Give the backbone structure.
Amino acid sequence: MARVRAGSKLPVKFLLTGAEPMVDTQPVDCTTRQPTGEAPIVLATPGYSGVQQDGDLYQINWSTDASWKGTCRAVTVRIPAASDAIAYVDFH
């Protein structure tokens, strides 16, 4: 799990070939990494101007919220596949 200062801008980078991703985030329990019940918030969808793309490399500059201090969140790259890619972030 990555540790990030709440309220900072976090570059989310990933490689993806042949699909258009949707990226979202939602709060998770810091120990179990299970969602806390809040619905995901969409960070980017196909065609969103905040997504930078260079070939198969994607980047989203995620502006995190200072109120997330002491919480954890999952960032999910949703692609048309059997499973999605998930990264976990611990805010301090």
